[in-house]
Amino acid sequence: MSEPEIENLLSETRRFAPAREFAAQAIAQPGIYDEAEDFVEFWSKQAKSLHWHKPFTKALDFSDAPFAKWFEDGELNVSYNCLDRHVEAGWGKRIALFFEGEPGDSKTYTYLDLLTEVKKAANLLIKLGVRAGDRVAIYMPHIPEAVIAMQAVARIGAVHSVVFGGFSADSLADRIQDAGAKLVITADGGYRKGKALPLKPAVDEALANEKCPSVEKVLVVKRCANEIAWDESRDLWWDEEMALVDKEHVAQGFSAEHPLFILYTSGSTGKPKGILHTTGGYLTQTSYTHKNVFDLHEGQDVYWCTADVGWITGHSYVVYGPMANGATQVIYEGTPDTPDWGRWWDIVQKYHVNIFYTAPTAIRTFMKLGSKVVSHYDLSSLRLLGSVGEPINPEAWIWYRDVIGSGKTPIVDTWWQTETGAIMISPLPGITETKPGSAMKPLPGISAAVVDDDGKVVGNGHGGYLTITQPWPSMLRGIWGDPERFKQTYWSRFPGKYFAGDGAKLDEDGDLWLLGRVDDVMNVSGHRLSTTEIESALVAHPYVAEAAVVGASDATTGQAVVAFVILRRSQLDHTGSEADITKELRDHVAKMIGPIAKPRTIFVVSELPKTRSGKIMRRLLRDVAEDRPIGDVTTLSDTTVMDTIKTRVGLGAED
Ligand code: WT7
């Protein structure tokens, strides 16, 4: 964010006090911040609302910092907490999932239905040789079987690594190899934008030529009945196998520090990081925050989080937090524009959704389309709205509240990360007077500080880097296979503090305003992408000699990928136009990483701005990409290079 944008943001004066009726019925009540004074005691109390096969005696061990252990000598089973205990409490008939397929098919699962499916799936995994600690890759559409697969893996103490269905075969292969997955669970395809989008071919490609020797079997859910290739020695139909296994499975307890999942996310290098989460602390914080931030009244509310299971939001606020709380929720397979832009609001109306959680990029898209698309639907069931993934600008916040929330719903702007596992900074509805665009305060039991370059805490009215100053239950336990990188990335910049990678400012009241990433990580539509990873993909193409990628601000997607490339003229095998070349390069990035990483714009340039030590000055390229006056160029090895680039870019094609 540029200085003027920040100033603009901080001059926001609108305030929204909680409505009295909301506050009276809210789960979170005012004394809660005081109650959390002793954070270890506070989280220990929250953890006790889970079912423990063996109770823990010690809440936190941070003696091997930054590696934390929460509730370590306790034993629990995540799936038992999400399913069995609700059924045992007599809620077996309560609806757990309202599934809405994109083509219009729908299916309902009660807690008992889900438990039965998860038990069968657990038996199937065991039959296929999966044991506690083994890794299972999941590459699926957003359908109930994805939830069932994750819960089943968790149930037997294995570790899932969900790879978003929008990632390419190459990205899938990298992630399977890094985790050493034994089994892949996928589907023939999923529905997106009115079409069956095949998934199984990407798995075939990822596993071809013995690229992933750890994989023994591939389980395939039949979703679209699209034509797929079949390897008799390796592939199995989910349905056929599920019909053969036993329906009974007794969940056993595992240590609270037993691994639950790995989820890959982009960092500032070319190699994605496998973020590792464990069970007891993760389930404690995801369930506590889900209940308190979203004010979930289980058995009454219908909750809908639009995130795909392929992202951390889908893990924490679809599969684990809500289910641990016995919530009734909606999951929708497809895109918001299919068959038309009314689809989401039709779903809200159909299922009487009360609590809705989505990303600013979606809100801005609807805001641009105008209120008319929404006006055809009855959204009066909504009583709370949430936002996540990137800073939400005040206009979008106000539009969300006014148009989607009929001018009355509280809005919770929730800041967190794949690494934090659960919400860290957010208003509490019913307690916090909100400001449009601010995530407000750390939740009870969480401590954050904004620090300057030297790690000194800044005062109110000042900006700096966001850090977390005490361990929290759902914190990442490391990077899969790379403990050094974990320490280096998050704990070395400000000793003793977790460095989130975000810039933030404290206003005069001490409330937090998130200002976006300060590292080489971009945030496109709430999804994290690494500049370096896309640069590596570009230079892997024979046409490209050098590449620099920046995240430029974009009115809808927050940031957009903009690339500057220097071509190897000698390698061009056709005399196509520059537009042909940039199209080919964009497609190449989509093929290597996935369509989400496709640059919005590629500029062909003859030079890149570098410091004397050879580091690309992305700041200057960002100025170009955002069409601003170029900043300070004095540290460049060649100070004229920016003039050349500006002239070139003026001629460049944008698509
Ligand atoms: C990055 C984490 C957390 C689930 C989705 C993204 C940005 C996230 C907010 C927010 C401002 C936010 C940060 C963070 N971010 N939520 N409410 N306000 N920025 O998870 O892919 O791990 O990305 O998303 O920059 O570091 P992720």
From TrEMBL:
Residue intervals of the AMP-dependent synthetase/ligase domain: 89-480
One Pfam family named in its UniProt record: AMP-binding
Cellular component per GO, a single term: cytosol
Domain AMP-binding enzyme C-terminal, chain residue ranges per copy: 533-615
Gene3D superfamilies: 3.30.300.30, N-terminal domain of ligase-like
CDD domains documented for this protein: ACS (cd05966)
Signal peptide: none
Single Gene Ontology MF annotation: ATP binding
Ranges in a coiled coil: none
EC number assigned by the record: 6.2.1.1
Entry's Gene Ontology BP terms: acetyl-CoA biosynthetic process from acetate
Record's keyword terms, sorted: ATP-binding, Ligase, Nucleotide-binding
Ranges of residues in domain Acetyl-coenzyme A synthetase N-terminal: 37-82
Protein family membership: Belongs to the ATP-dependent AMP-binding enzyme family.
Name this polypeptide is given: acetate--CoA ligase
